[in-house]
Specification:
Helices cover about 45% and strands about 20% of the residues. The chain is built from twelve helices and 14 strands. The strands form four sheets. The chain has a six-stranded parallel sheet. The longest helix has 25 residues, at about 305-330.
């Protein structure tokens, strides 16, 4: 029996990531090959013409799963009855801007969008924040949409998770699908901690720990970590534009696993509201290893944390606490 279409909101839809993301959603990459979708695209007034151009292209591509397109600059119309919201729109940091300036612009954007989602989205709408600072934007959204359950508001660290998989597969010369259970802890920033201590790789001789297969602790504890932390900057240097294709693809992975479930024995990384697990303070949106089943995520419990990891996990939590304080100071 044909499924009813789900409504998916993409904010900042005329931008680079939006342009890469909307065809992926329309092709079923996010919600599955048998799930029809209606796309809601929101952007700011100066981008209205470009947004209409994206709508024209979506019509021209004749996607079988795409049952409708709403392209608007009105946040209420954009949020109406949406089941999934991917928040790509935000204020990017420009040269010479202080962190506080960027934070205050984003706080006002996310405050406004939070109240529109709360009032107009479908019940149980799943929210993914992509725009930086993603963890703190998600936290602001949660604060200003109190009736939306905290478990429904997440941020994207799957891009970092996938970057780890890519780095390990390149190093070991294996296919990326043979690597599993890497972790991103903390903030989607250069303090994030990419952790392979629990990861495994499938080789011709069976499954073995990544650390054992790499057999170079020095690389894993230094260069590997900084490569992942600085990968976004490296792409900007190479493309003169920030990563869009990989961000869009990772956003699809995040929502797909959340809605359809993670494979048995596998976890992924998601920025979620901390419940105090692993000694991370409650009240932060922090990236943890999670499994998903029946549309709900759960933090993977009981993983052993060594001293090196502890210090890295705490450092990124400290940065998130600072960002939270900065965001709240912008509200007053």
């Amino acid at each position: 029996m044909a499924k009813n279409p789900l409504r998916v909101l993409v904010t900042g839809a005329a931008g680079q990531i939006g342009y890469a993301l909307v065809p992926m959603i329309a092709r079923g990459i996010m919600l599955g090959p048998d799930q029809p979708v209606i796309l809601h695209m929101l952007d700011i007034e100066p981008a209205a013409e470009a947004l209409n151009g994206v709508k024209m292209e979506l019509i021209d591509a004749a996607f079988p799963l795409l049952k409708g397109v709403v392209a608007t600059t009105d946040v209420v119309e954009a949020c109406k009855d949406v089941n999934v919201a991917v928040m790509v729109g935000g204020f990017p940091r420009k040269e010479g801007m202080e962190r506080k300036d960027v934070m205050s612009k984003n706080v006002s954007i996310y405050k406004a969008q939070a109240s529109a989602l709360e009032k107009h989205a479908a019940p149980n709408c799943k929210v993914l924040v992509v725009a930086n600072p993603a963890n703190t934007n998600a936290l602001i959204l949660k604060e200003f949409a109190p009736s939306v359950p905290a478990k429904n508001i997440t941020c994207l660290t799957r891009l970092d998770h996938n970057r780890v998989m890519g780095q390990i597969s390149e190093r070991l010369k294996v296919h990326v699908s043979d690597v599993k259970n890497v972790i991103i802890w903390g903030n989607h920033s250069s303090t994030q901690y990419p952790d392979v201590n629990h990861a495994t790789v499938t080789t011709s001789k069976g499954e073995k720990p990544v650390r054992e297969a790499v057999a170079d602790d020095n690389w894993l504890n230094t260069e590997f970590i900084t490569t992942v932390q600085q990968r976004g900057a490296a792409i900007i240097k190479a493309r003169k534009l920030s990563s869009a294709l990989s961000a869009a693809s990772s956003a699809c992975d995040h929502i797909r696993d959340w809605v359809l479930g993670t494979p048995k024995g596998t976890w992924v990384s998601m920025g979620v509201y901390s419940d105090g697990s692993y000694g991370i303070p409650e009240g932060l949106i922090y990236s943890f290893p999670v499994t998903c089943e029946k549309g709900e995520w759960s933090i993977v419990k009981g993983l052993k944390v060594d001293e090196f990891s502890r210090a890295k996990m705490d450092a990124t939590a400290d940065e998130l606490a600072e960002e939270k304080t900065l965001a709240y100071s912008c509200l007053n």
